[in-house]
From TrEMBL:
InterPro entries: MATE_fam (IPR002528), MdtK-like (IPR048279), Membrane_Transporter-Flippase (IPR052031). It is a multi-pass membrane protein. The keyword Manganese does not apply. It comes from Priestia taiwanensis. This is MATE family efflux transporter. One of its GO terms (molecular function) is xenobiotic transmembrane transporter activity.
Length: 458
């Protein structure tokens, strides 16, 4: 019975690799695009109607949240890979143990991060040299977002487990619900409606938290009514206890993956701290350009996530020939999709930036220069997402961390400060392609010559 139920959930180990990867990745990609679109619409409301200082506040806050939440992001990735490997091996009992243990562990960590975020958010923003005009708005926005972290990450955790088990469609359907709710609530809470007061930037943060909370409740109800095969039933509540071998795997594999995200986010904090020193216009321009680069990264992130789930299931099923073919197919898809988006944004550079910034703002000129220099590098950087996803799916988590640290902290961040000090703000943006090229070269070398295939999750 259990074997048959599991078998029905393993489409990633069978069928044509290109077709299987494409149809698994598309809902992930569309979901990521919708999330970015939602963030962009929120930024349009904030930037157009609340001003550049408010937009700069959200940019600073989002970087802080990314930094603090990275500590639990790796736990989610580790649990997803463990689930995928066990589903691929058709070991339903162990997969459920992973879900139960990681859910409890994940909740504890998210509550801890919420407390730390609320206590230290303003201190971190001061450390980032956030302009005085931006600091009060950023503090209000951050505190509300941190209060919603347990709901946000419970929601994200369930989505990750679903994808690890081979289901990318259900997360997409519920992302649609979340995005629609956020889009509807944003202007209502920002400007007020009827008995609802005008909340300004606080309303933008609150709309996101409420939308994710409602979606989380709907998703949990749906999965239990559908009798999702990895749900924890009343008779299985004992699985919510912390299983020490699984906890060890989550910690020793999850922490390096979380640290990789911290390396990325802390590098971003170092850059935005440098950019803040050039004034609110530069910060707003970087925030608007970052909104567009999020779209450019969407295909690579989606393909990387899809490749990771697909590779993990095939590793669990001991189908290594499919693992390598999945990698090559993922790289091809990345070049095609990411390259297409880069061309589109280059063709409509000013018009795209004008969505987030006043049309007469000098920040648009700065943003156009950022895009002209950085966007093409994201095509190459997408290869790193694919290769890292495959290597992590086997349990090799240290090498991707070292590669990311080298590319961003040893190469990109020092280059940004050196170039900025020597040649001014326009030279800072060249640090992006320099760092991306470094990451691609190191990732390709380790994939070809490294011993990542011998790694184990447990």
């Amino acid at each position: 019975m259990g074997s048959a139920a599991t078998k029905a959930q393993v489409p990633l180990t069978e069928g044509p690799i290109g077709k299987t990867l494409f149809f698994f990745a598309m809902p992930v990609l569309l979901g990521n695009i919708m999330q970015s679109l939602n963030g962009s619409i929120n930024s349009i409301w904030v930037g157009k109607f609340l001003g550049e200082s408010a937009l700069a506040a959200t940019s600073n806050t989002n970087n802080i949240m990314f930094f603090l939440l990275s500590t639990i992001f790796g736990i989610g990735m580790a649990s997803s890979i463990l689930v995928a490997q066990n589903v691929g091996a058709q070991d339903l009992k162990q997969a459920k143990k992973v879900v139960g243990t990681s859910a409890t562990f994940f909740l504890i960590l998210s509550l801890l991060i919420t407390a730390l975020g609320i206590i230290f958010s303003s201190d971190i923003m001061r450390f980032m040299q956030t302009p005085d005009s931006v600091l009060p708005l950023a503090t209000i926005y951050a505190n509300i977002m941190f209060l919603g972290i347990p709901f946000t990450y419970a929601y994200s955790f369930i989505m990750t487990i679903l994808r690890g088990s081979g289901d990318s469609k259900t997360p997409f359907y519920f992302l649609i619900i979340c995005v629609i709710l956020d889009i509807i609530l944003n202007p209502i809470l920002i400007f007020g409606f009827g008995p609802i007061p005008n909340m300004g930037i606080a309303g933008s943060a609150l709309s996101t938290v409420i939308a994710q909370f409602i979606t989380l409740i709907c998703l949990v109800v749906f999965l239990y009514k559908k009798q999702y095969f990895l749900r924890i039933t009343k008779a299985e509540f004992h699985l919510l206890k912390l299983d020490l071998p699984i906890v060890r795997a989550l910690v020793f594999k999850g922490i390096p993956m979380g640290l990789q995200m911290i390396v990325v986010s802390s590098s971003g904090l170092a850059l935005i701290s440098l950019i803040n020193s050039y004034g609110a216009e530069a910060t707003a321009a970087y925030g608007a350009a970052a909104q567009l680069s999020n779209y450019v990264l969407m295909p690579a992130m989606a393909i990387g996530a899809a490749v990771s789930s697909m590779a993990a299931q095939n590793i669990g099923a001991n189908k290594w020939d499919r693992v390598h073919k999945t990698t090559m197919t993922g790289i091809f898809f990345n070049f095609s999709l990411t390259g297409f988006l880069v061309i589109i944004i280059h063709l409509f550079n000013r018009e795209a930036l004008s969505l987030f910034l006043p049309s007469d703002s000098h920040a648009i000129t700065i943003g156009m220069e950022i895009n002209n220099i950085t966007l093409w590098g994201f095509i190459l950087f997408g290869i790193t997402f694919v290769l890292s996803g495959v290597m992590r799916s086997a349990g090799s988590v240290t090498a991707p961390l070292v590669i990311t640290f080298t590319a961003l902290w040893v190469i990109r961040t020092p280059a940004a400060y050196i170039l900025g000090n020597m040649y001014g703000i326009d030279a800072i943006w060249w640090s992006f392609p320099i760092g991306f090229i470094t990451a691609v070269i190191l990732s390709l070398l380790y994939y070809r010559f490294g011993n990542w295939k011998k790694a184990k999750m447990m």
